[in-house]
Amino acid sequence: MPRSLIETLIDRHMKCVRCGAQMGTCRCWEDVTLRCPKCRRTKQVAKDILDPIETATVEATCNQCHKRGLSAPIRYFDSKGQEIEQANAGSVR
Fold it and tell me: What is the pTM of this model?
């Protein structure tokens, strides 16, 4: 079924609430890999609004390791595996 004129106009004017780009053209809402630094388990999750925009992997202690008393700071990595420094992260816009 063809889209109506109003649907087309709405889509054309919708913007990403994080970066202001036209909806669907930015990478703000892609999935990221969540990885536990202790047991190395991984899981694909939706990117959180507080994650830096360039985040591809979030390293955080999983629930099972946390229950055993293991913990580590949350770290963010880009798609090249480089750690994203929190002071330089373009996370909140």
Answer: 0.65
- What DSSP assignment string belongs to 44-79? EEEPPTTS-TT-SEEE---HHHHHTT-----EEE-T
Q: Exposed, middle or buried by CB within 10 Å (0-12, 13-18, 19+), for 78? A: middle
Residue 83 maps to a domain: no
Residue 38 lies in a domain: yes
Helix spans in the chain (H): 5-13, 63-67
Tens-place pLDDT, residues 57-79: 999 999 899 889 888 899 999 99
Cβ distance 33 to 58 under 8 Å? yes
State the DSSP H helix or E strand holding residue 44, giving kind and residue range, or none if neither: strand 42-46
Q: Which residues contact residue 9 at a Cβ distance below 8 angstroms, ignoring those fewer than 6 apart?
A: none
